[in-house]
Automatic annotation (TrEMBL), chains A, B:
InterPro entries: HTH_MarR-typ, MarR/SlyA-like, WH-like_DNA-bd_sf, WH_DNA-bd_sf
Protein name per its UniProtKB record: MarR family transcriptional regulator
Top-level taxonomy: Bacteria, Bacillati, Actinomycetota, Actinomycetes, Micromonosporales
Source organism per UniProt: Micromonospora rosaria
GO BP term, example: response to stress
Pfam annotation, one family: MarR_2
Residue numbers spanned by region Disordered: 149-172
Superkingdom of source: Bacteria
Length: 172, 172
DNA sequence: ATCCAACGTTTGCGCCAGCAACTATAGCTA
DNA sequence: TAGCTATAGTTGCTGGCGCAAACGTTGGAT
């Protein structure tokens, strides 16, 4: 085993990405926990809250998160028990059901988001001057586009899966 | 709920980091699986292989990975069963034991590393021209140094799994 | 020498997630 | 209409992991 392999700049690069991600994720999780949310639950809340009618079908929710459909079933179970969202039958397709954020869920999100944004700024975006941040984000975007097929979409936000015009009623 | 919140550039930035990381991780996992390794096992192998004597104490291994000590116990159990490493009593401290990579473990690593490096180059470092890559890595390093608990020692009280006052990370 | 607090590791338990099997519905084809 | 296949969601099972308790060990204090 050649020791120098581990000094390969490619290994170093991956290490930086992984550690930056892990460090940020840990900070997020710590703040979310103060509000009684897991990272997954937070992601579910945001995905729903930004969707038309504050709702998504279970399958679409699974596609927008890193969860399988069975994982979504169980997260939604827990969050429904905690009154953060509720299931609603789909009128057109009796196989489907929507997960809909409740008022309590939206309020929880309102509680969490300011601190969440503050953390991003404190530990991530605020760590670099604007040109350096822009360069970082350009690089990340290029890697993301390469590695995440289907993530193209508008240059807008997280959900690459907006390219999933699954159902109708475009509210916003 | 204000819809514009989700278009906040800070949210976008985090989304890019998370998706780039998730995409790369998925590629890594796919290749590792071809060689019968999980990501955690690969990390354990690399951490041990680059340590003096190809060995680390369980606690130190836990500090260098994202695992708790109990997690390390179990991953070492599995890898010992698969003959990728073995435990060895610490002569100076009978509480401690070393995890030592076996020849088979080193060979497995040799099998995996070329493809691993190829994947990094194909989907990450090779996606950008050298100056852009340097800028990306500089940015990541700055964020890493900020969020990395070891680098910000003494400033905050962190959850136990974040508090890693050790020399954990010879990677970068 | 004894005590005791801290340490290293393992183990019991519970949570969470994925896979695959299952049920129910939808939609096409003839 | 009947039949076949694809789809949406849930559930049984399993494995991985963290927390906290347990156990042995260490090293310092008295």
């Amino acid at each position: 085993m050649n020791q120098n392999v581990f000094d390969d700049p490619r290994i170093t690069a991956v290490g930086l990405l992984v550690e930056a991600h892990a460090g940020l994720s840990a900070r997020f999780a710590a703040q979310l926990e103060e509000h009684g949310l897991s990272s997954v639950e937070f992601e579910v809340l945001t995905r729903l809250a930004r969707s038309p009618g504050n709702q998504l079908r279970m399958t679409d929710l699974a596609a927008q998160t890193s969860l399988s459909t069975s994982g979504v079933t169980r997260v939604v179970d827990r969050m429904e028990r905690d009154a953060l969202l509720c299931r609603r039958a789909c009128p057109n397709d009796r196989r489907s059901s929507y997960a809909v954020v409740t008022q309590a869920g939206l309020e929880r999100l309102d509680d969490v988001l300011p601190g969440h944004l503050r953390i991003i700024e404190q530990w991530f975006t605020g760590q670099l001057d604007p040109p350096a941040l822009a360069a970082l984000l350009d690089g990340l975007r290029q890697v993301r586009d390469a590695v995440h097929p289907g993530a193209t979409a508008g240059s807008t936000d997280l959900p690459p899966h907006l390219a999933r015009p699954r159902d109708e009623d475009p509210v916003t």
